[in-house]
Amino acid sequence: MYKTFAKLNNIKKHISRLFFCTDGKLKKYALYYLLIFFLCITCCLTGCGKRPPADQTPQMDTSPDFFIRVLLLKDTSKAVITSSNNLNIISDTGEGKKYNSKLNITIFNNQLKINNDIFTGKKFEVKTSSPNIFSINDQSYRGYLKLIIDPEKNTFSVINIVPLEPYLTGVIGAEMPDYWEPQALKAQAVAARTYCLYIKKRFGTSRDYDMRKSQANQVYKGINAESKQVWDAVNETKGMVLTCRQTDGSENIFPTYYSSTCGGHTEDSKNVFGDDFPALKGVPCQYCKNVAKPKYYFWHSVKFDHKTVTEKLMSRYNSLEKLKDIVDIVIKKQTVYTNFTRVTAVELIGVNGKTDWLRAEDFRLAIDPSGRKIKSTIFKLTKEDDGWLFQSGRGFGHAVGMCQCGAQAIARQGADFKRILEYYYPGSKIIDVYNNN
After folding, report:
1. What is the pLDDT of residue 278?
2. CA 98, CA 121: separation in Å to the nearest integer?
3. Beta bridge partners of 382
4. Are 327 and 343 in contact (CB under 8 A)?
5. How do strand 78-82 and strand 123-128 relate by DSSP bridges?
6. Kind of pairing, strands 402-403 and 258-259?
7. pLDDT of 7-24, one tens digit each?
8. How would residue 210 be classed by pLDDT, with cut points 50, 70 and 90?
9. 127: how many CB neighbours lie within 10 A of its CB?
10. Angstrom distance (rounded) from CA 269 to CA 280
11. Which of 288, 279, 309, 284 is nearest to 387 (CA)?
12. Which of 50, 214, 391, 420 has the fewest CB atoms within 10 Å, i.e. the most exposed one?
């Protein structure tokens, strides 16, 4: 008890020294200190985080063409779903039940157990009433859910069914800092909207989902990524997508790729992903160096040992097993710029003399799936006794389409989002997708 009182007296002395002179008068800046102190207390009591979610989820009555199916969980055996309202379960067999605000979901013998009930269906919808907000494993989303059982694995997948514009509010703040320039956020919104609809159209018809929630497509964090700035960017570009001339002569949407930091020049999509669109030709970018963190614009050397490189590549690409063991890697193709070169293809040489090749982007992500060690394909590759050294690295990401740090720099100069998009997607046009169907 004595020690506690001593500590309190100590704190009292420190506060007195902060606000009062030795003669008992208030110090010159005491009122400023007091103001800051009360602001901090108010912030702690009321919260300083992102604003709470909007009361309603818009577009819940929109056409199915504008609902996005996002894969949240794959091959899982359990999940917890909560909502502030009742949760309604409907299976493909017609079974249904209404629950209070929490569902504990597990699977056994290809049957879904929800709380204490067993369901025999294979596909389930989980819906709640307005504002159509729920949480799964403590992550909040809008719209509703689908649960799909995989009978071969005795697991299930969880898919978020969400309208296009609310989906984007969970993407923009995850892909770009929401305190960046409004025009950069708007450019991001248009690019993300176009990319999403393109992937949905191209791949969604052959699978149960349109988009993954990760960088495999574009990062989606649901309500946790929302903010006023993000909602403004989405609402002020509502329905805007980019189109360009296709190889068949038609005008249509295209995969509006984007990445963090191009390093000085964006790259032709054909060299990175193999697809060829007029609006995805590389352009010079002197902008991103003014925004990107130094560790992303120029990245440190990284080394991978021989065993790791061989195992990673062969586990990702079964066709490489014919090489038996990779003994050498040779740069096969590269794009040469004024101050640097970007590797676009590598040749792999096996111990048995057989060879194969990979696009450089596939190569780097096979060895480093995180993309945070080999940050780009701008590097010099050196063979050492026990592995390979990636050095003189520059940029962060695949560098096709919009450079996000470049977009921020251009927005700082006063350009609007349309000019940013015109620059990074040359020859593209903006249309309203809701009025062009």
Report:
1. 95
2. 16
3. 389
4. no
5. unpaired
6. parallel
7. 445 544 555 555 555 555
8. very high
9. 18
10. 6
11. 309
12. 214
